[in-house]
Amino acid sequence: MSVTAAHTRQERPTRIPELDALRGFALAGILLVNALMMAGPHALGVVDDLTASVSDRIVEGLVQTFAVGKFYLLFSFLFGYSFTLQLTSAASDGARAVPRHLRRTLGLLVLGILHAVLLYVGDILVTYALFGLVLIAARNCSPGAALRAARIVYGCAAVPLLLLGTFSLLMPDAETAAADAELAASFPALIAGYRGDAASVVAANIGQLPDALLSALVMGGFVLPAFLVGLHCGKLRLLADTGRHRARMRRICLLGTATGLPGSVFMALAVSGPLGPRWALFGQLVGMVTAPALTAAYVCGMLLFLDTARGARVTALLAPAGRMALTNYLSQSLVMALVFTAYGFALYDRLGPGDVVLGALVLYAVQLAVSARLMARHRYGPVEWFLRAVTLAGLPRGGDRRDAAV
């Protein structure tokens, strides 16, 4: 019997507050990374900034260590998990799951393209939409098959990247310096574009799309395994009763930290620290390959914490933002575009990392407060309502708050 058929005998799933809290937590990490990326061309050590202060490098190093590469994977895991809840929701409504999810995918794709062209070229929604098609194809696979596929895809992505990173260490210093100089030579035009006018901002984003697509393809090698791990966990409903899995989650948290944190620290030392340009690419790739381990530690550590009395208060704080995570994600880009580009204050390449991170934390606090007010009165955030309407090919019904992140 197919898994989809099994879903038809299940009731519509209720929302899991801890999943929403994880989304709310992930929004903070996404914001810290994206804010630095949108603030200027030297962001996060893309090319060494010789004018950066020690405090700037420390701030970037901390973001490199604890945020870069981790939180988009956390969202990817939750995307895969929520997919199983959406299957159950469709079955309980007597609807055909595949057309629903294809419409949802199309909606994400359109939002992602508009986001990348108008606001932030580092959009993740297009990647989610395209690789989300694999989830539709894999909807009837067993939990074990999903986990095995995740391991295979991860291995196929990680091994070539590590080989590439190792090869980069063999390059002469002169070649590394020449490549960095060539990239830095493009920065004045980029700065002028983002400080010019609305048309030049869009042109600057479009000009970076080829590199962004290549980056999205590389990231997809890790997004897809996270999707599949989420699919595995969702099919087993592992997060519906985390109390039964506390010992296992502790082990994953410890092992993930022991594996992922050293890789992230090495990335920070290589990219934003003292190791120098020769190690930068290798450090980035090591950080990318080990990031899933630290993401797993974040997931399990947060779930263990949220299952406590103090954690329940944190859940109440974070969950409203997580319920409207898509609205918050896009509004983060909108606010930062107003701050850094000619849409507003045109502060591109004018603020240091410390100021950018402080501003991002203030924005996150505002989002938590606004989300709490909106979710106390409404069932969906604005963009969630739009995507739900596209998914259903009709207006969402009001009044029923049982939906499970659909």
TrEMBL record:
InterPro entries: Bact_Transport_Assoc (IPR052529), DUF418 (IPR007349)
Superkingdom, natural source: Bacteria
Keywords attached to this entry: Membrane, Transmembrane, Transmembrane helix
TM spans (from-to): 21-41, 61-85, 106-131, 151-171, 183-206, 212-231, 252-273, 279-306, 326-345, 357-376
Domain DUF418 per the UniProt entry, residue ranges: 234-392
Keyword Transmembrane carried by entry: yes
Pfam families reported for this sequence: DUF418 (PF04235)
PANTHER family the UniProt entry points to: INNER MEMBRANE PROTEIN (PTHR30590:SF2)
Protein's UniProt name: DUF418 domain-containing protein
